[in-house]
C-alpha cells in the first residue's frame, strides 16, 4: 500500500507503507492517517536525521545480502544490472526534505486524508 505525504511546503512524497513504517514508528504516528504539525516538525527532523546517521554506521547484514541474492535467483543474468539494496537513508531522504521544508515554512504534513 502507498502512503502519500502532503504538505503546502513541499511536493507530495509517495512511499510504500512497509518503508514508511520505520519512520512513522520513530515519530509515534499511525500509518493509516495522521499529521505532523509544524510544531512537531523540528523534533521529527532531529529524530529522523539521528536514525539515518545510525543506519549508516551499520553495514548491510549477511541476511539482507542473502535476501537480495534470493530474489535475484541463481541464474546468471547478463541482460540486467545486478540487484542492489536500497538503504534506509535513501528511502527516508524525500520525507526528510519534506520535514525540513515544513519546519522552515511552518506547514503541517498530512497523510491518509
Your description of this structure?
The protein is α+β, with helices and mostly antiparallel strands and 113 residues long. The chain has 4 helices and 4 strands. It has helices spanning 17-26, 41-57, 62-72, 88-105, and strands at residues 2-7, 10-16, 34-36, 109-111. A two-stranded antiparallel sheet has the order 1-2. It has a two-stranded antiparallel ribbon with strand order 3-4. A hairpin with a 2-residue loop joins strand 1 (2-7) and strand 2 (10-16). The protein is elongated and about 50 Å long. The mean pLDDT is 86.
Q: Outline, from the CA principal axes?
A: elongated
Return Rg in Å.
16 Å
Low-confidence region ranges: none
How would a crystallographer describe the biggest sheet? 2 strands, antiparallel
Q: How many β strands by DSSP?
A: 4
Q: CA-to-CA gap between the ends?
A: 15 Å
Average pLDDT level = 86
The amount of helix comes to: 40-55%
- Spatial order of the strands forming the largest sheet: 1-2
Q: List the total number of helices.
A: 4
Give the DSSP E fraction (strand runs of 2 or more residues). Answer: 15-25%
Can you write the helix and strand succession as a string?
EEHEHHHE
Amino acid at each position: 500500500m502507498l502512503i502519500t505525504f502532503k504538505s503546502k511546503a513541499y511536493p507530495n512524497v509517495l512511499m510504500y507503507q512497509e518503508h514508511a513504517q520505520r519512520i512513522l514508528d520513530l515519530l509515534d504516528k499511525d500509518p493509516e492517517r495522521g499529521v505532523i504539525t509544524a510544531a512537531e516538525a523540528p523534533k521529527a527532523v532531529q529524530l529522523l536525521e539521528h536514525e539515518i546517521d545510525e543506519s549508516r554506521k551499520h553495514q548491510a547484514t549477511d541476511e539482507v545480502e542473502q535476501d537480495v541474492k534470493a530474489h535475484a535467483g541463481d541464474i546468471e543474468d547478463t541482460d540486467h544490472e545486478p540487484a542492489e539494496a536500497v538503504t534506509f537513508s535513501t528511502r527516508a531522504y524525500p520525507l526528510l526534505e519534506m520535514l525540513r521544508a515544513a519546519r522552515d515554512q511552518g506547514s503541517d504534513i498530512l497523510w491518509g486524508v
